[in-house]
Amino acid sequence: MSQSLGTALTRPSGLAIDRPRALARRFGNAAGSRAYDLFVPSGYAGTPLPLVVMLHGCSQTSRDFAIGTGMNALAEAQGFLVAYPDQPRSANFAKSWNWFRDEDQRRGRGEPSIIAGLTYAIMAEFSVDPSRVYVAGLSSGGAAAAVMAMMYPDLYAAVGIHSGLACGSAGSMSAAIATMRRGALLRPVQAAHPVPTIVFHGDRDTTVSPVNGDQALAQAQPEGRLTVTTVAGRSKGGMAYTRRVLTEPDSQWSSEHWVLHGAGHAWAGGHPAGSHTDPTGPDASGEMLRFFLSHAKNRRAHRH
What we know:
The structure is a single chain. The chain is α/β, with parallel strands linked by helices. The chain is 24% helix and 25% strand. The protein has helices at residues 62-69, 71-78, 110-125, 140-151, 173-182, 211-219, 284-293, and strands spanning 23-29, 32-39, 49-55, 81-85, 128-138, 158-162, 197-202, 227-234, 240-247, 254-260, 267-268, 277-278. The strands form 2 sheets. It has a 10-stranded mixed β-sheet with strand order 1-2-4-3-5-6-7-10-9-8, sandwiched between helices. Strands 11-12 form a two-stranded parallel sheet. Strand 5 (128-138), helix 4 and strand 6 (158-162) form a beta-alpha-beta unit.
């Protein structure tokens, strides 16, 4: 997202990479329809597998996002399905998910109903472990992932928010631009049913202020005492980062906040053939997957 909710700061370098093989699907309901690509690992044989729903950022496409994040290679190696919904220009001129519109921040309405609907459609068509369904996104996709975690805590076992914003941070496009610059003026509503959340955000992000990452993590925290562990590190590409791990005593809930020092508005550790990536950063895709697979949904969880 830029100030116009459009392009981000980096561009693909033109390096060649094999186009990921994926099934082309479309889901529609009363709110509209979206095409999506679905990667199924070659080892799929009917055994229930995890599912990760990946929401691209502004100006990106589902295939571009798949290349940049490298999530399909992880899916092939570790055995899970990945879905990439595609936001068309007919829905938003910048191909941004409409995370800032009131009707697109509600369960059973707008884009959340479409994303949840295609998630359920995949679960009906393929053998998916219903306790291991996850959602992640970059920029506007990260903000949309936060919405999905708030509206469908019964569906998604964990969420990944890269350079995104908390659910309810804005209610209009003008408010969204201001929120991207400085964060939400009012603290976003606390999640009634907190979903384990992993947040990545560059501390030099001038497109979506890092305070939005703080707010997204705060929104997902349960009330009560938390244990916090902080670790400083450096990626293989040389980027320094601070990783903060929050856990709730006697609970399966945990969250992580990765502050990427010197990083802008781009997917950390991504492939340079995809847009809006920073290959020098820590491997956000691998770390998200590690975090996701450490959380399984309790199927007796309260329906929101």
